[in-house]
Amino acid sequence: MNQPSLILVIDDDTKLLMGISEILKRGGYVVITANNGTDGIQLALENSPSLIISDMMMPPPDGSEVLRILSKHESTIHIPFIFLTAQTDERNKITSLKNGADDYITKPFSKDELLVRVNSILRRKEHTKSSEQVKHDDIVDKLNQNILDLTAKEAITQTGFSEGMSQLLGLRDVESDEHSQRVVSMAKEIAKVLYQDGNIIPRIVMGALLHDVGKIAIPDAILLKPSRLTTEEFEIMKTHAALGRQILETLGMPLEILQIAGGHHERWDGGGYPQGLSGIDIPLPARLFAVVDVWDALANDRAYRKAWPLQRTIDYIKEQSGKHFDPAMVQTFLSIVSNEN
After folding, report:
1. Exposure winner among 197, 219, 279, 309, fewest CB in 10 A?
2. Which whole-number Å values give the CA distances from 181 to 14, 201, 308, in the listed order?
């Protein structure tokens, strides 16, 4: 039996907040509430609700600011968001949708309208999850079989395989391919500082080139989507790390390469994926590459945003020391960046 969906409602009008909560509970949902944006943000981060309904006009942070802040967090960026507002101006509705809202309900509204809107969004969300998972599983099965067939028929060198897989990913996603090519040189420079064994450095380079190889198994509708992913789409996207390691392990790649592919989205504070490792439990090659990966992503244009200025990117890397990144890796990385500049 499926668990009822959890919905977060945010509104500074206590009476309306309780009314909406009661309607949704009678509709079969579990509801948590906040009467201000700050508490709403905290509840969203702590509970990862299936849907957020927020008043637009509140004392700061208002609904737009709540959406903007939650859109910066991996755990909440994909949660569907409905705005409530007393404003009837069509321009406000269009602006809200452009800012990332999934729907817009004008006050006053009826009980039936609220439930229909909520049911529609959650039903669409569940349908997307089911259909994308089926496609994803099918792609993974076929990919694994193709790799096994290939290795059984041909003797492929590790270097040749790396270059071929990188080119194959580039045919599907030019942005990922360009990103992989850029991070190689920076990963190599950090590896020179951290490793005395010269045999490990080429493995770090190869791991940097192949870190996103698991994206080959991600459906085009998700991999190439120009806008933000839904919660379910992002869960499928996250599988690329474990899939990448699985693909490379099948071909007998060295441990450092596997560690980068499988661990480059782990976080120093334990909030990453796929294993939720923390601190020094995260393999050193993955800790090394995590900084390089984020640096390059921020410093270059992406489909959903423009590149950050250099100083803003540096400030972010520093701010994430001890949170996302190993502090020692941040120090080494920034010293290299400083020397290059």
Report:
1. 197
2. 53, 16, 19
Distances (CA, A) of 277 to 194, 208, 255, 288: 21, 20, 17, 15
> Which CATH number does 156-340 carry?
1.10.3210.10
Q: What is the identity of the amino acid at 148?
A: L
* Mean pLDDT (whole number) for 13-26: 93
Task: Give the pairing type, strands 81-85 and 103-106.
Answer: parallel
Can you give the residue ranges of every domain in the chain? Answer: 6-122, 156-340
Give the side-chain half-sphere CA count within 13 A for 168.
14
Query: Check: CATH 1.10.150.20 for 6-122?
Result: no
Contacts with 181 (C-beta within 8 Å, 6 or more apart), sequence order: 166, 209
Name the CA radius of gyration of the chain, rounded.
Answer: 22
Peptide bond into 4 cis (omega under 30): no
> pLDDT tens, 58-91?
988 988 899 888 887 777 888 889 888 876 666 6
Please say if the pLDDT value at position 152 is more than 50: no
Per-residue pLDDT at 140 exceeds 80: no
What's the CA gap between 236 and 252, in Å, rounded?
25
Packing angle of the helix pair 310-319, 327-340 (nearest 10 deg): 160
Secondary-structure percent of the chain, ordered helix, strand, coil, rounded to 5: 60, 10, 30
pLDDT score of 98: 63
- Token pair 């640096």 is found at 295
d(C-alpha 211, C-alpha 203), whole Å: 12
